[in-house]
Amino acid sequence: MNAELISVGSELLLGQIVNTNAAFLSQELALLGVNVFYQTTVGDNGKRLTAALELANSRSDLVIITGGLGPTKDDLTKETVASFVSRKLVHHEESLHNIESYFLKRNRPMSENNRKQALVIEGSHVLLNYHGMAPGMIVTNNDTKIVMLPGPPQEMKPMFTNEFVPQLAKMMGEQTSITSRVLRFFGIGESQLETDLLDLIEAQTNPTIAPLANEGEVTLRLTVKHADPTEQKRLLDETEDQVTKRVGQYLYGYGDTSLMEQLFLQLREKHCTIATAESFTGGKFSGMLTSFSGSSAIYRGGFVSYATDVKEKVLGVSNEVIRKYGVISPQCAIEMAKRAKEQCVSDIAISFTGVAGPSKQEGKEPGTIFIGVAGLTPEPLYYELNLAGNRKAVTDRAIKYGCFYLLKEMKRWNMKE
Amino acid sequence: MNAELISVGSELLLGQIVNTNAAFLSQELALLGVNVFYQTTVGDNGKRLTAALELANSRSDLVIITGGLGPTKDDLTKETVASFVSRKLVHHEESLHNIESYFLKRNRPMSENNRKQALVIEGSHVLLNYHGMAPGMIVTNNDTKIVMLPGPPQEMKPMFTNEFVPQLAKMMGEQTSITSRVLRFFGIGESQLETDLLDLIEAQTNPTIAPLANEGEVTLRLTVKHADPTEQKRLLDETEDQVTKRVGQYLYGYGDTSLMEQLFLQLREKHCTIATAESFTGGKFSGMLTSFSGSSAIYRGGFVSYATDVKEKVLGVSNEVIRKYGVISPQCAIEMAKRAKEQCVSDIAISFTGVAGPSKQEGKEPGTIFIGVAGLTPEPLYYELNLAGNRKAVTDRAIKYGCFYLLKEMKRWNMKE
């Protein structure tokens, strides 16, 4: 099945927003085995949308249009498609009800033009909008399916996944449903993961296994097709088992959960409080940890001990350690974590010291990092890293490693309990 | 002049990367008065690129193609365009030299396929690449100009701005050159800024004045057309004067400089050291300040005094202040800043305390923020904010306000010196 995307919106042609919808849809379709050969963007202009539609209809089995379904005069996707396939617009009761309750919930009066959003193309398959007002539609024209989805990503994405994908499975001639499970890995590169799983990835057809790398993390998406949900789960579990037997030590979570969120959730679940002592990370670790609401239950506080004398005089790292080993050392990392734990009275503490770059420090190369952890084991731990990349890359990766090490140790801790 | 964009790259069709080039180019072209009517994305496929090119050539005066100029077999933009306009590829000495020195600088051997990058279409206007290897090109075909730019944004953007825009001015039949100056504002909304400047914006044609809002900041882009650089500068200065007479108190910088970067630059210029005491911002302020290389010259260190007893026992806010006024108070903000300045031995210090949300704290609504500043004035200062939005929005905006207040006070400080 060959697909193409048409994005409608003058704000895209003016460059006021970046077209993330096209990337999302392309990625999802690729994983479902649908080839996307063209992405086109046109403004809120009936003539040019019709031209794009004619061309797309002539060469693709599936045309997905996003945007232009709203209540204003600019929005004319529905009208343009209706006229292209020579059909009328008719009221859709369920969508009107949805729109009315949307306004009721927000205690706002509904203006008349919002009724327009409940109009759908006659004979179309309506995709209900559970995250906004405008319904989506699937229209069949000759051998081509034309799909209309709303433009706002927070409406488009759930409609695509929950309402359209089941229909797509049917179109693809399968009396089955498609589900996927995303496994998240850290500390292993995409190519290594692929090498370790190559025979599985190649042999496996249901579920399929698709790796994807993004900002130092790798995900594996397992996609299963089966009519029976119990059987879907069994197949996914079985494949996950095969995967974790080989690379389980790098698995840290599922779905959209970031390393930091996973750490936050683990700390909260264990009622474990944490303190921080950050040098080159400058407070970024604690800044990310406190981005989750409810973080005050687990985060006590910390130090940004940037200057060497602040490490000594404020945080309390001993002068001897600094003189003898320097601040870029395992000893300093360990002392930083111990002092943060003591001063902030927490269960555990993590510290970061190292060279973010671009210059050397204490004769050490940029990317030389020490992470200290106090309170998780009888004796404090440290980890040494040598990371490549610029200042930002080094800092961001060090923070991820910090989360990963804590999660790994807490898992071990767990098993002992 | 009507333009359209063609983005080439299978990674775009697979959704592995988001097409930020299209947004950048559309925005820049709009500001230069060029209408973009279509954006098309095709894979690394000669046949489909030719189809897109034919269509674009038939309907647009200007076709800008990005991507597919690299050294690998996949890259075939140049070859496809050459064949479309029936011309040969020829070696471009200056580009070959550029590529060779690229490898020399990095001390890496140059593989043979990199030579291919020095091939250009015969008779084309070559755009030199100062940030990578592949040169860009402008080819005239009938009445249409076909422009090829490299795909990586860090190469494409400077080539577009510095090499292509001057050529575009010529194409637009103007014996002039186009330059713009971006003024950055904070603390004023886009609509207020527009209202305050409406008569100027409407009356002004050279330079033009275009406002744009982004993440709580507003920019004004002044775009001037004139053959003489001295006259360009005079016109820009004149318009900037008119603008700052009305809204100068909100102007904080120029070009791409963020509020935090401007603060960093100001502190460095004044040899002024800073310490931090952060509560709900959790270390995000210091994390951002230390993201600039060279920050160790101005940043001493700080506290993330998240829990109330950490504010008291570690940072040293007096128990009396906390008991009497609570931690969400001007008094606490001031004490936090004073203690951070003392403990970290800095010239100035800034503190953040408040309610990030979603829950109330000490009976105060989410968005209630106090920022304390010590060391800039004989007596410490505080600022009170009541911000709308979710946890992230409140935190991010509070940090921007912190930068803005410091910059404003430093300006005043400046004038006194």
Structure description:
The structure is a homodimer of 417-residue chains. Chain A is of the alpha/beta class. Chain A folds into 3 domains: 2-171, MoaB/Mog-like domain (Molybdenum Cofactor Biosythetic Enzyme, Chain A, 3-Layer(aba) Sandwich); 177-254, Alpha-Beta Plaits, CATH 3.30.70; 259-416, CinA-like (Maf protein). Chain A is 42% helix and 25% strand. Chain A is built from 14 helices and 17 strands. Chain A has helices at residues 10-13, 20-31, 46-59, 77-84, 93-105, 153-171, 190-203, 229-247, 259-269, 284-289, 308-315, 319-325, 330-344, 391-416; strands at 2-8, 35-42, 62-66, 89-91, 119-121, 125-127, 136-141, 144-149, 177-186, 208-214, 217-226, 251-254, 274-278, 299-304, 348-354, 368-374, 381-386. A 6-stranded mixed β-sheet of chain A has the order 2-1-3-8-7-6, with helices on both faces. A 5-stranded mixed β-sheet of chain A has the order 14-13-15-16-17, sandwiched between helices. In chain A, a hairpin with an 8-residue loop joins β6 (125-127) and β7. In chain A, α3 (46-59) crosses α4 and α7 (190-203) crosses α8. The longest helix of chain A has 26 residues, at 391-416. The model of chain A has no long low-confidence stretch (mean pLDDT 92). At the A-B interface, α2, β2, α3, α10 and β14 of A face α2, β2, α3, α10 and β14 of B. β14 (299-304) of chain A pairs antiparallel with β14 (299-304) of chain B, so a sheet runs across the interface.
